[in-house]
Design a protein that fits this description.
This protein is α/β, with parallel strands linked by helices. It has three domains: 3-278, Rossmann fold; 310-428, no CATH class; 435-492, no CATH class. The protein is 46% helix and 14% strand. The protein has helices at residues 45-63, 90-98, 102-119, 135-147, 162-168, 179-185, 226-238, 252-267, 298-303, 315-323, 335-355, 368-380, 385-403, 411-428, 434-460, 464-476; strands at 10-13, 18-21, 29-34, 67-72, 151-154, 157-160, 201-206, 222-224, 242-248, 272-278, 281-283, 286-287, 331-333, 479-483, 488-492. The chain has a four-stranded parallel sheet, sandwiched between helices. It has a four-stranded antiparallel sheet with strand order 5-6-7-8. The chain has a three-stranded mixed sheet with strand order 12-11-13. The protein is globular and about 80 Å long. The chain starts with 9 loop residues before the first strand and ends with a strand. The structure holds adenosine monophosphate and zinc ion.
């Protein structure tokens, strides 16, 4: 039986401002959409934190046995500098500065994003769609919004009529903003803009002649507005109503507010049951940001080459550091804080090494079952990783007292302690089991040595066909044999 049937998962819904019991649209299935990166520069540690929060959420949903479809997009067009409508596309701007094609920028930083997330042991999402791959779907949504009376064309661009929408819907429901205040606080259109109201946002923008990223549409040559892609891709892959939508806190307004408006204007109802927002990572008390330069790149954490760091830290330590805070709390990065996390992390890992050697007794003096429940309770309470980590340290305390023979457990309880620690540390928190990787490498090397010995025997018997076959097949696998004068060595490429 699936685990979720015995667990009550509660999720803080940013829309209601309350923790709610999670009930998916389709029993046993979860659809989750998370706004992905705009690939115009190297991913910074703040971005990593947000994506890590959702990686852990994805991992826990999978652990509970939900068939989860996790969609995380790549924004490769439409995100304008400073999030305004009249400006330069972030990717096009970078392409101009680096003298590259926009798609070269997209490729370069998408590869960087994947490499970094891989180092941090992220699970890949189920689908990773791109905005440029869904222009047709976006145009269809704009057409529908215009047909339903909430969009208007002006001079080759199409805008969303926020004031008209707010007459029958609630623009501001997610961010808690009020449209009258918003209109009062912004300069009204002074004839320079094609918008009816300053709060209207672009669904489709006319491309000026110099704009490289351009597509034909019913309104002329142009490109989609930033908010539109997420509506198009979430609807396409998860349906008009799906379970979870996440992103960083700073995306609540305008991005997610606009997504809700677009969906409601298109389908008549709100798209998402639970909105989730991850809080910011700060550096020296200020938000980490690509544009202000107040950031640390993950690569700098690994090497320690940063004015903010006294040394380098392995990805597992950085991951552990970030999960020690709840995803809805602000986390401040500092050298001291990550040093403290490193100590804790190694204490946890030492406990995991001792775990292997523990012996069972005929009776238990520890209540492992209720400890296991506390681990689930922590994650069921809006994915509370700091509380879970405190419980994992309690588990390590058990390991230590068992190792010192101060307490005893039965075989079943020992198995439960082992499996619970392993599941929560490696599968749910996503800590990479370096020991397992080392062991696997040792095994691989052993197998290669065995094949080399077999090949040597074949050569001694003048069975050239077999010896060549062994060499060639290993090469296809990225393992190159190097015949020396007396011995054969090898190299393994990634
Ligand atoms: P971007 O590539 O700028 O669109 O950002 C990708 C994701 O990272 C979004 O969900 C942002 O909300 C999130 N993000 C940006 N800055 C930070 C930060 N300092 N801390 C945590 N998340 C951030
Ligand atoms: Zn989005």
């Amino acid at each position: 039986m699936s685990l979720y049937k015995n667990q009550t998962l509660k999720i803080y819904n940013s829309l209601s401002g309350e923790k709610e019991v999670f009930t998916p649209v389709h029993e046993g299935n979860v659809g989750m959409y998370v706004c992905g990166p705009t690939v115009y520069s190297n991913v910074h540690l703040g971005n990593v934190r947000t994506f890590m929060s959702f990686d852990v959420i994805f991992r826990y949903l999978l652990h509970l046995g939900y068939k989860t479809r996790y969609v995380r997009n790549i924004t490769d067009v439409g995100h304008i500098v400073d999030d305004v409508d009249d400006g330069e596309d972030k990717i096009a701007k970078k392409a101009r500065l680096e003298q590259l094609e926009p798609m070269e920028i997209v490729q370069k930083y998408t590869v960087d994003f994947h490499t970094i997330l891989d180092k941090f042991n992220f699970l890949p999402p189920s689908i990773e769609p791109t905005a440029t791959g869904h222009i047709i779907e976006q145009i269809e949504i704009v057409k529908q919004i215009i047909e339903n009376g909430y969009g208007y064309e002006a001079n080759g661009s199409v805008y969303f009529d926020v004031v008209k929408f707010n007459e029958t819907h609630n623009y501001g429901q997610l961010s808690g903003r009020n449209i009258e205040d918003m209109l009062a606080n912004t300069r009204d259109t002074d004839g320079q803009s094609d918008k009816k109201n300053s709060q209207d946002f672009a669904l489709w923008k006319k491309a000026e002649v110099e704009h490289i990223m351009r597509w034909p549409s019913p309104w002329g040559i142009g490109f989609p507005g930033w908010h539109l892609e997420c509506t198009a891709m979430s609807t396409k892959y998860l349906g008009e109503k799906f379970d979870l939508h996440g992103g960083g806190m700073d995306l609540k307004f305008p991005h997610h507010e606009c997504e809700i408006a677009q969906n409601e204007a298109c389908t008549g109802h709100s798209p998402v049951n639970y909105w989730m927002h991850a809080n910011m990572l700060t550096l020296n008390g200020k938000k980490m940001s690509k544009s202000t330069g107040n950031n640390i790149l993950p690569g700098e954490i690994f090497t320690g080459e940063s004015e903010f760091l006294s040394k380098g830290f392995e990805p597992n330590v950085a991951r552990f550091f970030m999960l020690q805070a709840h995803y809805r709390s602000v986390l401040d990065f500092s050298n001291d804080a990550i040093l403290a996390a490193e100590k804790g992390f190694y204490r946890l890992m030492e406990g995991m090494e001792l775990l292997v050697e523990l012996e069972a007794s005929s009776t238990s003096t520890l209540d492992i079952l209720s400890w296991q429940k506390s681990c689930y309770d922590a994650m069921n309470d809006d994915f509370n990783t700091p509380i879970l980590i405190a419980q994992l340290f309690e588990g390590i305390r058990f390991v230590n007292v068992l190792n010192d023979k101060r307490e005893t457990v039965t075989k079943e309880d020992l198995e439960l302690l082992k499996s619970t620690l392993t599941i929560f540390i490696y599968d749910v928190l996503g800590i990479k089991d370096e020991k397992a990787s080392e062991n696997n490498l040792e095994k691989l090397e052993g197998v290669i040595e065995m094949l080399i010995a077999m090949r040597n025997e074949a050569r001694a018997n003048k069975n050239w066909q077999l010896s060549d076959e062994i060499r060639d097949k290993l090469l296809v696998l990225g393992i190159q044999l190097k015949d020396g004068k007396d011995v054969t060595g090898f190299s393994i490429s990634n």
